[in-house]
Specification:
By secondary structure, the chain is an alpha/beta fold. The chain is built from seven helices and five strands; from the N terminus they run ββαββαβααααα. It has helices spanning 30-43, 63-72, 82-88, 93-98, 101-106, 111-118, 121-126; strands at residues 16-17, 22-23, 50-53, 58-59, 78-81. The longest helix has 14 residues, at 30-43. The radius of gyration is 15 Å and the shape is globular. 25% of the residues are buried.
Length: 132
């Protein structure tokens, strides 16, 4: 099993390489990204993994960290599946989405609502899911 040193993963869910995944938006704060790049060149990846929709190869978090990792020359970008985070909290993400017309119609546009309604605050904070 691959080891991602420096990755903070309190729930112990499977961590995998997400280097080819797309981000939801472009880098908005280049100075922040550049500071992360300098740190990653010195210490590698430190902190939470990106959170992704694995079936769609989309990264929900970590736009600046993903870009910094590429600039720093890191071979891999550690990530965890949002579905796995829900599972680790005893919830079936797809059951929640498909069991509610409101979530089913807005799921792909409003990840933050699903996350905030169903994941504990400690998980949201630990994995950088405080999406606005």
């Amino acid at each position: 099993m691959r080891s991602f040193l420096g990755v903070v993963n309190p729930l112990g869910v499977k961590v995998f390489d997400t280097s080819g995944y797309a981000s939801l938006h472009e880098v908005r704060d280049r100075a922040h990204r550049d500071a992360l790049t300098a740190d990653m060149r010195r210490r590698g990846w430190q902190g939470p993994p990106t959170v992704v929709l694995a079936d769609h190869a989309i990264s929900l978090t970590g736009v600046h960290r993903r870009s910094a990792a590429a600039q720093a020359g890191l071979d891999e970008v550690p990530g965890v599946s949002l579905e796995d985070l829900f599972g680790a909290c005893g919830k079936d993400m797809w059951e929640l989405v498909n069991g509610s017309e409101e979530y089913a119609t807005s799921y792909y546009y409003d990840f933050s609502r699903l996350i905030n309604d169903h994941l504990p605050e400690t998980v949201i904070e630990s994995y950088g899911l405080d999406m606005q």
